[in-house]
Amino acid sequence: MDTDTSEQALRREAIWRHLDGEPRQQICSDLDRSTSWFHKWRAEFCKNPRTDFADRSRTPQHSPTQTPKTVADAIVSLRQFLEAVTTPETRYGLIGALAIQECLEDLGIKPPSESTIQRILRAHHLTHPIGTGNDAAYYPWLEPWAVNAIQATDIVTKHIRGGEAIVNFHTMDLYSHAVALNAYDAILPTVTNCGFRLTLLFGLI
User: Is the pLDDT higher at 205 or at 77?
Assistant: First the structure.
């Protein structure tokens, strides 16, 4: 039991005086308290006559959605395993929440949501800010030296009403940044676009 406080003593006095038959209004006036305060502690006494009239925390004593410790520990262990790339299967594999969910399912454990997994990883300092390691990573990239030397093209196939396929070429010259857009019938045997030739066969390149 918590140490009795002056407020607890007032609550106890109010209920004792009420049990002795003293009017509620007189009790509240003498103690300088509201009638709602009186009703609150009267209800507390009726619910538990052995109450100590202490304040109760509003924080739930149990969280039904709290992740079990065994599952949280498994999430941490799986992340560390996936990051360690100790096997050929994990060398180029994913390490995020989706990958961890799949591993948990393989182990027969019902996985929590992606956001819950991220929260657990963050709590164990196992998340990495976007861009981490970019300075050390090497990404080879061809440098364009003249117009038409290097071009980048997106090829997108669209089907118009009636089912006919149209192939769209979105091309950018990486030196001049000039852009070209061309559309072709997908069944054309060959098309020439911005200096290069592509062979098409029923929409497949």
Answer: 77
The two structure tokens encoding residue 10: 């007032």
Supply the pTM of this predicted model.
0.39
In angstroms, the CA 107 to CA 16 distance is 60
**Cα→Cα distances 182→161, 171, 191, Å:** 19, 8, 10
Number of structural domains, the chain? 3
Q: How far apart are CA 111 and CA 147, in angstroms?
A: 53
**Distance from C-alpha of 89 to C-alpha of 54, rounded to nearest angstrom:** 59
- Is residue 22 assigned to a domain? yes
Report the C-alpha dihedral over residues 102, 105, 107, 111, rounded to 10 degrees.
Answer: 100
Domain that holds residue 159: 151-199
Instruction: Indicate whether 178 belongs to any domain.
Output: yes
Percentage of the chain beyond pLDDT 70 is 75
> What is the average pLDDT score of the chain?
78
The answer to whether 155 and 193 have CB atoms below 8 angstroms apart is no
Strand partners, 155: 169
Q: What stretches of 32-164 adopt beta strand conformation (E)?
A: 151-159
Measured CA to CA, the distance from residue 83 to residue 60 in angstroms comes to 36
